[in-house]
Design goal:
2 copies of one chain form a homodimer. By secondary structure, chain A is an alpha/beta fold. Chain A has 2 domains: about 300 residues, Dihydroxyacetone kinase, domain 1 (Rossmann fold); about 190 residues, Alpha Horseshoe (Serine Threonine Protein Phosphatase 5, Tetratricopeptide repeat), CATH 1.25.40. The first copy, chain A, has 17 helices and 14 strands. Chain A has a 7-stranded mixed beta sheet, with helices on both faces. A 6-stranded mixed beta sheet of chain A has the order 1-2-4-3-5-6, with helices on both faces. The radius of gyration of chain A is 33 Å and the shape is elongated. Chains A and B meet through helix 1, strand 1, helix 2, helix 3 and helix 6 of A and helix 1, strand 1, helix 2, helix 3 and helix 6 of B. Strand 14 of chain A pairs parallel with strand 1 of chain B, so a sheet runs across the interface.
Chain lengths: ~550, ~550
């Protein structure tokens, strides 16, 4: 697997240097590379209880990303998914612990328990006050006395961190941490495994399947389940949490395991807010990446029953930008739509000549549908013909309600119709064209002058000019010769459209991102449409 | 592709509701679903210049995630990678624009230019002051007059946002935005394409390759290049930026395109700080997800030459948590390692009987290497035998410097040796065992009592107990019968180890995550090691 790293061996040291460097001087690290990788608060004076956490790397922003005022004092970082050594933990403890003592916050994995445990013993031999709590919030394995520590660890960091920042003593901070640990529960779901640096990616989750109750180190989930979208996924996660949920108000923590997009996470937040847990979940932390498993495309939900003091501790401001803050989880706040969105509909009126002209223009576009689609397929989506033909059919259907007798109003009404039925760039371009033509007509321009004013506005807003391989390359010469008659305009439009086939570098629109060799020899579909329109009118006029 | 969504059609509306709900009441949305998807500041009073941005979705947290005090006033959101409609933009403008007017910040794509442009025309028809700026920071396509707008857009949001928040008038805010746009440059690199909801994933970047100069909508990069790690990748990006970089101090913005892990992004930040640009880049924004392309595993670097006023505007605090803040980019702050990490080495001394006992214990472990590895392979890594044999060899080699004549110091010294040579859980467990035994010995316990004290501490720190399928199941009965002689202890250890083969649910250690049917019939390798040790001693004693 390709990854933006230099080597597996230097990954953690380089990444931590990157974290320290971009912390705006909030963080420092101990000078113990490569074996001792400890990130500490740069502003720490040992005057209060220190909080030390850590463990294997690969869970970023945990834990170094949560070092800072109001959360951790130090993070001790192992290799990816491997516990740090006793010496590293001891270095972290000794570096930050003063008379007020130190709380070690450890996720319940054997390696972490042991390395942090032995380091605590050694630190106590120096006369330091060291307490240790073990976070075991995972409810995926219900009959396991040794539940894993996962994202619920963030509740401990935040609540203990707020108390320590306020100056609470070690017993108080440790007791608060233990209360949080007793109440916190978590479970995760993932659609894919994670990519461990230096190892091939495990491909164990099949098409249409998800894993439920997974760990944060690539451990397989407790069960593979069918995946049926975000709503069903959240319902399944909520269902596994429910047996462990007591009465009272809860905080939820919605954690991105690393590879889910913000769009997906926001949909999952919405589903959580609509779930059967909604009446008990009054606050939410996230959605955000907090306790990741490298690039795993999954999420976890943690729940904590809370007192008012705990809510205040969770809401207290902190320095680490990785902490997403606590939000009340309520209804979606709505604002009424402003007035003035719907253009005033002009009164319909009749003008047989104009009606016939519009019908012939529309017929030209409908007849060109397949040819323009084929041309567009050379450089784009292949839908120019269908877009124009669809708009033409809609315009024909709207003829009875158009103000055909009033030229100015008619231009504007056509613009409105096209912008509502076509969508996308072409609809808006034509709406701008006709809106500006209507304005020009109102200010006394001839009908050709009005159309030229529309073209000017299109060039200005769209940023395209003659020679840029757009419809302008046909429309501009056609309008410039239209006073000589429609046949001259048609010839000019045709010449202009044909010339676009030699413009091998589009300078505006989507085709501008295409390699030039793909464009050579094919006219721009928009210019071709304009040429076909004038040719059709010229044939009718002949 | 599996994604945590319900349907392509409802993705954006559901995600935006999730964003609004988890904003702690900072945000609201217009009541215009499904076609009008506009997120607005909930606290907005129209007293200052409004900033409206937006475009296609799929770039989260852009743009809804940057709505809030000090940045955007409203975000108008289209479908994934599709411009919002004119009506939606107009609704956004009308909803937030007061007498001070409104600045539209538009990325340079035809659809966005047109829809925002026509909406601006219509809003001006209501008598509103509306200015529009087009961001075109991408330098991937050097000969394209219409450069794309990418992550440099964030510089505009932040600097214009700070000025608007301070009460600057529309001309001032728009002029500042245009100055930023004139100076901002960006380029991106990716190892993989993005996954567009509802579409199959395009597989166009081969093994060992990366794309340079890509867009944020899945457009192919300008070139495919060989990928040779993070350092070379950053060097290539810097190389493409350099021709566009002028003199003076710059701010860099390091953007995660969505799928790179925080570890990767921190390594890239470190590489940027070590690059040839380091002398000109004095500040950095990120690394963070700011202008993503769904789940694309890539990054982009944007640069802006800055005045002091602009630095102040970039550093000003804002409400949206997605803004990562501005950091000075300097040296990695180091703190010295604390004293006391290295245990004091006791003086060597002689005791032939103890030396012989240790040698026999080590011989037992060395002789059992293959058998214990084979047993461990049934439930774990298959390395228990090698770990123990390696430690035994190291301990034999260390005999000459051990304090063999002092029982208390000897226990502690053995613990230190084992923790330094074994690593991992087993080394620490044995270090805790011998450290506690040494303490007990110092306080007057018999040698058997000291070993029992060591076992107690191992149970406490490791969280394992008899019956949990660990080495304790052999060690506990052996120590309990050791006063009856080593033969009795060996028999008890053997019975305890054999009993672990029937413990089909490990309750501690790594095997606890294994399905029980994989464990049935095989003894725990740690317990087996203890049994083999005592059996070896009993044979020697017989």
């Amino acid at each position: 697997m390709k990854q933006f790293i230099n080597s597996k061996e230097t990954l953690v040291t380089e990444a931590l240097d990157g974290v320290v460097r971009t912390s705006n001087s909030r963080l420092a690290r101990l000078d113990g590379y490569p074996h001792i990788r400890v990130v500490v608060r740069a502003d720490w004076d040992r005057s209060r209880v220190a909080l030390v956490s850590g463990g294997g790397s690969g869970h970023e922003p945990s834990h170094a990303g949560f070092v800072g005022q109001g959360m951790l004092t130090a993070a001790v970082c192992g290799d990816v998914f491997a516990s740090p050594s006793v010496d590293a933990v001891l270095a972290g403890i000794l570096a930050v612990t003063g008379k007020a003592g130190c709380l070690l916050i450890v996720k319940n994995y054997t390696g972490d328990r042991l390395n942090f445990g032995l380091a605590a013993e050694r630190a106590r031999a120096f006369g330091l006050k060291v307490a240790m709590v073990i976070v075991d919030d995972d409810v995926a394995l219900p009959d396991l006395p040794q539940a894993r520590g996962v994202a619920g660890t963030l509740f401990v960091h935040k609540i203990a961190g707020a108390l320590a920042e306020q100056g609470a003593d070690l017993d108080t901070v440790a007791a608060a941490a233990r209360r949080v640990i007793a109440g916190a529960i978590s479970i995760g779901m993932s659609l894919d495994t994670c990519t461990v640096p230096g190892s091939p990616k495990e491909d164990r989750i099949g098409v249409g399947m998800a894993e439920l109750g997974l760990g944060i180190h690539g451990e397989a989930g407790v069960e593979q389940v069918g995946f049926a979208g975000a709503r069903a996924a959240m319902a399944m996660v909520v269902d596994r949490l429910l047996p462990h949920v007591g009465p009272g108000e809860h905080v939820a923590l919605l954690n991105n395991l690393g590879g889910a997009t913000p769009l997906e996470m926001s949909v999952l937040a919405e589903e959580l807010a609509r779930s059967v847990l909604a009446d008990r979940v009054k606050w939410i932390v996230g959605p955000a990446e907090m306790m990741t498993s490298l690039d795993m495309q999954g999420f976890s939900v943690s729940l904590l029953p809370v007192t008012g003091d705990e809510v205040a501790a969770l809401a207290a401001p902190v320095a680490p930008p990785a902490w997403p803050g606590l939000s009340a989880l309520g209804a979606v706040a709505l604002r009424p739509l402003p007035d003035g969105l719907s253009p005033i509909q002009p009164l319909p009126s009749a003008n047989p000549a104009r009606r016939a002209l519009i019908e012939r223009c529309c017929a030209a576009m409908i007849a060109s549908e397949a040819a323009l689609n084929a041309l567009d397929a050379k450089s784009g989506d292949g839908d120019t013909g269908s877009t124009l033909a669809g708009a033409a059919r809609a315009l024909v259907a709207a003829l009875d309600r158009l103000p055909l007798a009033d030229g100015t109003q008619l231009y504007r009404a056509i613009g409105n119709e096209l912008s509502q039925t076509m969508g996308g760039s072409s609809g808006v371009l034509l709406a701008i064209f006709f809106a500006a033509a209507g304005d020009a007509s109102a200010s006394g321009k001839t009908w050709i002058g009005a159309l030229e004013a529309g073209l000017d506005r299109v060039c200005q807003v769209g940023g395209a000019h003659p020679g840029d391989r757009t419809m302008i390359d046909a429309l501009a010469p056609a309008l410039a010769t239209l006073s000589d008659g429609v046949a001259a305009a048609a010839a000019a439009a045709r010449a202009g459209a044909d010339a676009t086939a030699a413009m091998t570098r589009a300078k505006a629109g989507r085709a501008s991102y295409q390699a030039q060799d793909k464009l050579a020899g094919y006219a721009d579909p928009g210019a071709e449409a304009v040429a076909r329109l004038f040719e059709h009118l010229a044939q009718g006029a002949a």
